Structure formats: structure tokens, C-alpha cells
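Budget justification note: compute hours in this period were largely spent on complex prediction jobs such as the one shown. Inputs:
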Amino acid sequence: MSENRNIKVTIQYDGRNYHGWQVQANALTVQQVFQDAVEKITGQRSDVKGCSRTDSGVHANMYVLNFKTASKIPAEKLKLAFNHYLPQDIAVKEICDTDYDFHARYCCTGKEYVYKIWNGNTRNPFLNQLALQYNRTLDETLLNKCASDFLGTHDFSAFCSVGSSVIDNVRTVSSARVVRNGDLVEFYVSADGFLYNMVRIMVGTLLGISEGKIPHDGIKDIINSKDRSYAGITSKPDGLYLNRVFYDNI
Amino acid sequence: MSENRNIKVTIQYDGRNYHGWQVQANALTVQQVFQDAVEKITGQRSDVKGCSRTDSGVHANMYVLNFKTASKIPAEKLKLAFNHYLPQDIAVKEICDTDYDFHARYCCTGKEYVYKIWNGNTRNPFLNQLALQYNRTLDETLLNKCASDFLGTHDFSAFCSVGSSVIDNVRTVSSARVVRNGDLVEFYVSADGFLYNMVRIMVGTLLGISEGKIPHDGIKDIINSKDRSYAGITSKPDGLYLNRVFYDNI
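Corresponding output:
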């Protein structure tokens, strides 16, 4: 049987139980769980391509993947089958036949992440590992202003964890804003791509500004330094969600 | 040491890991966990009184308890200590010294519950066991109108699970409304007290109306019948939250 169909799947998942997306030996990952479901449903083991590696404990409001298959099961039935076989913390939101050349990672033209901070006096038991629980004062107006210094095309080496194998650290940030909704403070950032731990270091830097460890106008200097040691800490994965994934023409 | 202080505590908890409030042999309960924390912090085992028994898997946005102690630790330090020792799915929101006669259950004059229904096309992985996941059409305007038939003072025997030992089944419902916020439909109900499984049977009845199994104007007849078999099913505990607890003068 030739794998003549290319299936594009949009999922949403709570990452608390997973060691990120990518298959690992001896650790449960979303890719592993999804590939197992594909095999159960289609009878074939397909190689599932994801739009992004996500770290252990990171969540996704929207995550796109694709796989090729010879299965003749219609897309709408595949959706029902996946939602039946997948665990409750992963949901298939949309599934469709797409161009044979579509690749969830290589065709991706941009992504938006959101980092959620619970800024109440006491922790929110319903957001355990679903938000950073942080009870020091946060001035969202100040942080929103500072976040605008991330905008534009820059070498973001200062916002990349050591150990990354990526060579070109230039990325274009098209949107970066901090909003408050009651006790929930959210940092939204969109770019054509993200370096390893980039959003978590951006958040650590904003918290460093809030705590007076980094000057209000420090982000531009940190970017220019290209030196990881000048940026803030890598904040916990708890609050990080891949929020949107962009493709051209689809 | 005489237990000369009466401590009132307002907590919030995610009930997924607990077999309800009340201590049970061989099952983890919120009361058990709280009593263990009291003993760890004060060095004394106190009898902790809760405002309500809640079923296994039910949550609380607000739950009030009290305990008597000889401890001299100030209330604000107790709050920090409890939030340190309690698991992440329970949070102490408020703690204060109260009248020696205050009893969380006997002094309670009313409660509000909310039942959350995720009414999206596909499940919400972040609300697993935190809402009823229900994908059939719900008309919140119709259901809100029907819910108003719960208002007033009635014998709610038809909305009480068999096996309850309560003798007087008359309760006064002061508020009952259905609201939609996007894909989330919520049923809010306040009363001076609730019978065993009363809110879950009310919700099962509203869903029965929505599914055409019970007529739109059926709630009054069901109340009048005093017969459990005429009401809808007992809906799952997943979506149920004790939302507010009322006391006179405090």
C-alpha cells in the first residue's frame, strides 16, 4: 500500500503528563502517544511530524502535526477515532487531508506562544503546573512597554539556552505584549521562529525587570550583548503554551 | 493547654485527587489532608469542621472550615504555614480568629454551587474532570428559563439521591441561572441548603430537557411528584464546584 494521503491534524494538549513532544527512550511524550494512536487506528506505524519540539511540561492550545498513510478512513471519522483512543489530556480539534508536500515543521511560517502567570496573593489550585504561580507585584503596563523592545529582527543569542545546536540565531519578533485579566498576567509573543528556551528566558528577563535586577530599558542592551548571562533566568515550563501556529496559504 | 482559639479558614481546592471532604478509611480526603497539616503546624491533632460534605471528585472555589487550637501562632503565619504544607491542589485563601462559638457547618446560612459544562465540539484537555464535557447542543436561554422553576421553597425529594438519611427535604432556592461564556455553560444555584446530590440531579434534569426527554415545563411537576424517578440522571461530579458559602454577620 502506498502512503498516498497526507493528513494534517490540529491538537490541543495539557503537557503536565508528558516529557514534551519528541519521542524519547523511557519517557512518555506526545509524539509517542500520537504515533501509538495512528497505529491502532490505521494499522500502520506512520512517522508523525510535529510543528515544534516542546519542552517537558509545556502545553499547547494549538499544535499542528502531519503523517502519511494508506488508510482510507475519511478525515471526519479519523477525528472521532483519535479522540476516542487518545488520553483525555490530548484533544484533536481539526483533521484534514492536505497537500502531499505539507510538512508541519518545514512549512510553518510563524508561531505564537503565551506564558501565563498567576499573580494572586495565594496560589490557584486549579492552575497547578498550568501557570507560573508568582505572588510579587507585577506592573503589566510597565512590562508591556518593556516587552516591545523584543520587537523586530535581532540575533537573539542572549535569549537562547546554552547547548542549542542552532547556528543562525536571528529571528523576527512580530508581536510581544503583556496583558492582565484579574490575577492572571499573560505574555504573548509571535515570531517566525523561536530559539531553545527563548520564551522562557524572555519571561525570566521581564520578571528580572519587575524585581529590579535588570533596568527598565535593559532588553535592547541584552539583545545587543548576544550573551546569555545578561538575560534573566529561564522561567519554569509550567506557564508556557504554544498558542498558535501559522502557515502560508492554509 | 486549653484550646482557646477558634480558627476559621477559607480554602479552595481541585477535588480530582480526593474522595470528597470527609475522612474515610483507605481513601484520601481533603479533611484528612487538612487535619494532618494542622497537626504538623500546631503539634496538636484538632478536629476540623467543614461547611459541607462534598462528594468524591467535587471541587471548591470557596470552602470554609474551622478548628480549635491552643497554638499561639498568629493567623497570618498560620496562612503561610498551611500553604507551605498543603499539597498544590489545595490553597488557603483566608485565615482568621473567629468567635469561639463559630461552627463552619451549623452557622452556614446558605451556599452557592456552580456546575460547569464544556460545550465545545471536542473535549477541552485542560478541563479534564474539571467540567462535564458535553458536545450536544445546549440552548442556554431555554435552560435559564427552565432553571427558574427551581426557585422558591419546595420539598426537593425528587432531587435527592436514594439513601440519604435527611428527614426534612424542604429547601429554599434563592437563585438559579444558566449562563454561557463561549463554549463554557455554567449553572449557578444558591439555596439555604442542599440535599444529597441535589445539584447534580438538577443538572441531569436540565440536560434531560435539552435532550427532549423531559418537557420544557416539567420541573414544577417533578418537584410536586417528590419522586426521584421523574427527575433526570445524576450528572457526573466533574463539573461541580462549591462556589460560595454564606454566614450571617461575618
